[in-house]
Amino acid sequence: MPVSFSEDLTRIEEKIKYRFKDRSFLLTALTHSSYSNEHPEEGVEDNERLEFLGDAVLGLVVAEHLYNSANRLTESEMAKYKAYLVSKAVLAETARRISIGKGLRLGKGEEISGGRDKDTILADALEAIFGAVFLDGGYSEAKAVITGLIGKDILKVISKRIHYDYKTALQELTQNRFGTLPEYRTVKEEGKEHSKVFTVEVLVNGEIMGKGSGRSKKEAQMKAAEEALRAFQSR
User: Which of 45, 110, 118, 220 has the least CB density, counted as fewest CB within 10 Å?
Assistant: First the structure.
């Protein structure tokens, strides 16, 4: 294993506050299918199976937190909040916060097309890491990692009653209507590193349907998706 990649593994372990007993789990979690397809001679497994497992572990941890909330949420409320918390948008932003993209193993095509910053790839890799921690250390360790990363998000969602995910709604609309996914494009970054404002456009079939700005790419994308949904409704 190259020294630089070993350093990436160490950095991610420090970010998630978990040290793997068997680092091969983490290595697999960071391996995209494009890499394993391009390097069959290495015999490496991609992260899709771990992502499937991690998705289930994440869902259980989030559901447990919501169920035990002092607010005594209804089943409907828990379902809405859970859907938001495990969405690709929230997970991708969490993955960016701990710089998972830097440690991914990608094929050349994905590398060139900006795969290190794609929501789906980042979110899937984070879920794969949750699955890797579960296999390496069990449920309690996986719960500690997940809570450490999104615990504040869970509290925020409950206190501010956030549950509507405009990005998911737009994705479902475009898939049903056009058989395609919306594309988010960052068109501007302003301000200093600690107080940046991002401006994002969302395109559907190559047409700009909405624009939004925010303190994070996730916030800007959500606002752009909200504007796009309004544009579709007005039509």
Answer: 45
